[in-house]
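Training component of the fellowship. As part of building independent skills, the fellow (R.M.) carried out the full modelling exercise for a liganded target. The chosen ligand was nicotinamide-adenine-dinucleotide. The inputs are recorded below so that the supervisory panel can assess the work.
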Amino acid sequence: MNKVQNITVLGATGTIGVNTLDVIARHPQRFRAYALTANSRFEPLLEQCRRFRPRYAVLLDVLAAEQLESGLRAQGLEDTEVLCGLDALERVSAHPEVDTVMAAIVGAAGLQPSLAAASSGKKVLLANKETLVMSGGLFMQAVRQGEATLLPIDSEHNAIFQCLPRDFASLEPSGVTKILLTASGGPFRKFTQEQLAHVTPQQALNHPNWVMGPKITIDSATLMNKGLEVIEAHWLFGAAPEQIEVVIHPQSVIHSMVQYNDGSVLAELGNPDMRTPIAHALGWPERLASGVAPLDIFATGQLDFERPDTARFPCLRLAFEVLEKGGTAPATLNAANEIAVQAFLDNGLAFVDIPRLIERVLEEIGTHPVHSLEDVVKADTLARLTAQDWLERKTAC
Ligand code: NAD
Ligand code: MG
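Fellow's submitted model of the complex:
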């Protein structure tokens, strides 16, 4: 029998983290939650510690870590050691006793821990697409040098991975001509420009098919999520921008497709539930029960496909543009987007101003080559400052 796999779940209290623990709990003979991490809310992490008894629990925030420590002791839970800070996140990602790391922190904050997991040769289940957007070249190099196994969790990329040959190395030798990346189109697919100008965060947070954290839900509404996924597909599968086509598929039943040179198009279908890609990656190369209901193909009925409209959703165009530019441009786009999304959620920026702000920042700070992680971090910091500055000037007018 296989030994029990020790898993670190980065971002354990988020949507992906909770779904990962749901799958882990279904297979206690195969997986152990070894380290669980979160940002600053200690209560949900305390509850997870009570249930999963991890070796480590990590909070980024020092005060929250102290509260977690007191909570654990009050409940007599002595087996979990509490750590805090970015160093600790990296430590539990690279720990020698850890086999697998679920990288599910949201945003740029996930970069360093994901890199630590890759460099130390873990099985890396990558949900944090921002890592690949910001530093795809460096991350893929860390995977190769660390001899890590990289498995995509994003449902589209997981679907593509499933539709590629087992010995896949690059597109042409496998006969792949195109990757068809599906997108639901989000809640505003049919909105006019005029209607888009007035949408609220509440409306944008109401995704038609998927339950996700707030940042990725807004990204889905602007189509920036699809833009980030185009860049993610570029790095994961070595696809040039013209080999990636975005297809709006409102039912979210087909999670993406791969087109081959003989005319075949392979697709992965299923209910929109992240436990499918999570179980696929956790069990890979074997299959595991995930708790997801089987797809009722008769109830599904119709499958529709449309071309995306980048005039109404310019974020998708911007993502293709930064992919062509390369260097620090994708990191700049990512950072400006994080600031813009937060401002929109705080009612400080209109929905249609999200792409405008990102475009401004891209124009203002230009693109530089990436030689090291420092170059990426610098671009990220500068983009955040520039975006904040633009927001402040805008409110002052
Ligand atoms: P979420 O907001 O629900 O959860 C985020 C998690 O990250 C939480 O545990 C939070 O505590 C932690 N976190 C936040 N900021 C942090 C920081 N500065 N330092 C350390 N930890 C921090 O997000 P989510 O929807 O679970 O998404 C997580 C990642 O997975 C994102 O990169 C997202 O793009 C990707 N993803 C999510 C889905 C989905 O269905 N939710 C699908 C595909 C990809
Ligand atoms: Mg996705």
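The panel noted the following from the submitted structure. Residues 154-156, 229 surround magnesium ion (ligand 2) (CB under 6 Å). The two ends are 67 Å apart (CA to CA).
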